[in-house]
Fold each of these.
Amino acid sequence: MYIRLNNQFSFWHRYSGYINCNQFVMKRLLFILSMLAATSVFAQQKAERPLVQFSGVVINADSSGIVPYVTITNLSFNKQVNLANYKGYFSFVAHEQDTIKFTSIGYASTTIVIPAKVNDKSYTIQVRLSASITHLPAVRVFPWATTDEFNKDFLSMKIADDDLAIARKNLTGKSISSLEKTLPLDGGDRTILNYNDMHTNLVNSHSITNPLLNPFAWGALIKEIAAGDKSRGVSSDY
């Protein structure tokens, strides 16, 4: 009797496990089928949306100037990317009720939804982008890549002279003479230089003798005249 009850219990235990397993498999199949049905319905609805020739121009919202080379992303159609030309003009095919995003460096992005039931299968729009100002934190750039390089340069650094040491260097004779050679003369220096030149000429004028008052010069002149007469065969006796 005990063996028979035990066999019946094992049978019902195996049967209940088989039922639970089948229920789990059925739930998984129902979930997969529902997902496939929803995907097919969504794809069908998406495919049924009419095509639209979406065109327009992108301008600055503040100055009404052209914004060139704007990136245009169709968020509703696999994130398809288009680009405006250098005049800000764009034109491409999209679907009704597609979400279009316009982005450009230096401007805040904007999003536009193409309306449904567009006339003539064409939709033209003027997109306005507002300038975006980004404040970046201050960055300090150091010429040392590592702390060891900083310590090495710091220890070998030459301390600059103070104001008194700099003044003493500028007043040395060597520094002043070098400055005199390079700096132009002012009015006072030119006046002193002219006076010195006039004094030098005046002193030198007294040291210059008149050759007509020199007897040696007269003797040399007479000799030159006599030598010239002899060369021409003329007697010098008077």
Amino acid sequence: MQILEMTSDVSTELDDASALGRRTAGLIGLPGRQVLIVEGHARTRDQLERSIRDMGFAATAIGSAETALRYIEERRFDIVVFDVDLPGINGLEMLSQLRKRGSQIQAILLASTGDLETARKAIHLEVVDYLNKPCSMGSLERALERARSRCPRPRLPEISEALQTPRKTVTVAQQDASSTSLEEIEQRHILAVLNKNGGKRNATAAELGISLRKLYYRLGQYQRQGLLP
């Protein structure tokens, strides 16, 4: 059973979120802001939809991969935020089908736990970001901005820092604190393959099954985190 928790005063943060939503309402119609949420648990789905709208995105929330595939075929979405564990077709299989259709939709993955096979598939399918449950709204907003910046259209201005407010944290599942996040597994896998190939980027990208652009993007992140010289 999923549990949602807010980590600070609920009424104050909901007021802050409502104010932010009003100030960013004019951004919703801009390119790069059409978001589809695919989450099997109704309570979490509703929470994500409200929060993403408050961030200035147009959010549509549904509960299954099958419905998502139909929606994306019929309507334009720039970003899909999806859970790995969905009823019926799982989230990664859904994204695989979209890629086979030639979809360039930017993808943000939600996962309760991480494993190497999931990380490999996500890398291959060009997932923009991985958010381990529970995730903060700040982390989600940063992931959405990264996804928006990668949409196949001119880069748009970032939301002003003046619009940023403290975010509530959504706890979507009980999680063992000692578990390894999917992002950490991905980091280890990419760095291990890079080391195996003697630092050669072309060979590493080929073995991982990703583009050089994707590899350089990840390596740049690791350098900023101090994982690479």
